[in-house]
Amino acid sequence: MREITIGLVASFFFAVTFILNRSMELAGGSWLWSSSLRFFFMAPLLFVIVLFRRNIRPVWQDMKRHPRVWITWGTVGFGLFYAPLTYAAAYGPGWLVAGTWQCTIVAGVLLSPLFTKTIETPNGTMSVRRPIEKRALFISLFILFGVVLIQFQQAGRLTWSEMVLGVFPVLVAAFAYPLGNRKMIEHCAGRLDAFQRVCGMTMASLPFWLVVALMGWMTSGAPSAGQTMQSFIVAMSSGVIATTLFFIATDRAKGNERKLAAVEATQSAEVMFAVIGEVLFLSTPLPNGWAVVGLAVIIIGICWHSFESTRTVKRPALPISTARRLDREGGEP
Questions:
Q1: Distance CA 147, CA 239 (A)
Q2: Is Signal given among the entry's keywords (predicted)?
Q3: pLDDT tens, 25-79?
Q4: How many domains does the chain have?
Q5: What is the largest CA-CA distance in the chain?
């Protein structure tokens, strides 16, 4: 339950991204600067935090030993996650981007077979592919249905270009974020905490953001003072606070696919926060009808995930032979 609470708090700060990105686009700011500035601000902030906690050296040492791993998954987890999100904000409203982004709760479950776990066998330990948690997938799809209901209210106002350019880039981001996060969890294997991992991934993704910033400079010149300030707020709220909280929650849930799916599902609350934020700050219409039903479905789904993950934790230990059989079958008692 604590991990889910942390995830919900993170989703509140993540929602700032969708609201301010849309605000910057409406003010004429380039998505290239909106995306790259966030990570230029994040890098020194996170470096100072980790340095103050006196554990920056392990990050540097691991990055020097495994530069390809850090650059690859830092770019996937942060670069291919945030650049498409800000690009989509240029073509679709914040609620559309926030809603489509919730596909990540299903993506996280579907990515499970790309990772392995160690089990005990009569001949010793062996690594096997993690199964797809069917129950977690069903609950995540239930939450996604709630997200669709929220979008249904305003979907009729969208043009075809808004649908295509505002949806497909977000689908790329929805898979890239959990993939990069989980790959780095697997690589760090408990050696680095959430602050260290976020700091390392941010620094490893900087070459990608330098290229993006160069493109922004060539196409639209320097960013405005307003866009710079809003990018700084996004960096603090979403980049530092939300990302660190989310990584802490996923760290606590690692090794338990159902619990990890529940934590990732808390991101669906971003839609609610984004809708409220756009109503308050961008004067969008209040949700009604099916949108209210969708909000209720999301809340029920998050509570359902919380119940299932708690039930899994409290489940009594199984006999070793039964546990081994279930691990091999990928089933449940």
A1: 23
A2: no
A3: 777 778 899 899 999 999 998 999 899 888 899 999 999 999 999 999 999 999 9
A4: 1
A5: 65
